Amino acid sequence: MDINSDDLKTFITVIDSGTLSAASVHLGQTTSGVSRALSRLEDKLATSLLTRTTRRMELTEEGHLFLEKARAILSAMEEAEETIRIRRQKPAGRLCVDAASPFMLHCVVPHVPEFRAMYPDIRLELSSNDQIADLIEHRTDIAIRIGALTDSTLHARALSSSPLHVLASPEYLAQHGTPQAPEDLARHALLGFVQYELGNQWPLRHAAGNSLPITPTMTASSGETLRQLALAGQGIVCLADFMTRADIDAGRLVKVLEADNTGYRQQIHAVYYRNTQLAQRISCFLEFLQQKL
């Protein structure tokens, strides 16, 4: 078997175009040439990929399976070529990056000087929103999102993951005592999220399961606000490691109920629309950020 990228491209173009004649226009070939190329591919695979009549074409079961794999292979080849081109070219132009304020402050801003030194011709625009429904509407090229993704129309790249810690300041614990079991939290001031119920599900093992729903005493829309409230001794909070690691290391915040923590890690993704004019700037930023994380 000697299948090459031209075989895959012909097959995919035929399917996407709907007819052999339409595919021949896209490929710059004759209709008979496309038909022969398709037949040669089927001969190489020793199976029929399409059932063809005078009016329409339909994928066979094997054709459906092969189409999925063919698309993945061509996509991987394009990304590999793009990576090599990026190494030869100098990225330039505007790049708008959006992230929730805690991630922006703790994981992006500290590395901006180094990134600008490496790519002086990229003009960074940084914005902070917890939720963006339409990247194009908000003129955003890359959005960094924490947790599960729901929009399948976007390209997504996993960057890292971050554990969650239940934390309090030493001053709060000295005044109110340290909870010894998850059930003890009901007697404490708890800091939670407003309009983000998943943020109020703490990764603690208890009698009813591995996720403890809490009723916050005080709420905020931003994790950074909750961090500042915890530092001020206003209660117990559950936040990601990426925004509290320095506080923990310095003793400003103390881990609580660590033995009951399930070890759940929040996924960190970059989401974006694929745009060939932006691909170079997007790729170099994501490569850089992933190394830092």
UniProtKB/TrEMBL annotation:
InterPro entries: LysR-type_TF_proteobact-type, LysR_HTH_N, LysR_subst-bd, WH-like_DNA-bd_sf, WH_DNA-bd_sf. It comes from the Bacteria. GO terms for biological process: DNA-templated transcription. GO terms for molecular function: DNA-binding transcription factor activity; sequence-specific DNA binding. Residues 1-60 form the HTH lysR-type domain. Pfam families: HTH_1 (PF00126), LysR_substrate (PF03466). Keywords: DNA-binding, Transcription, Transcription regulation. Belongs to the LysR transcriptional regulatory family. This is LysR family transcriptional regulator. It comes from Duganella flavida. The lineage of its organism: Bacteria, Pseudomonadati, Pseudomonadota, Betaproteobacteria, Burkholderiales.
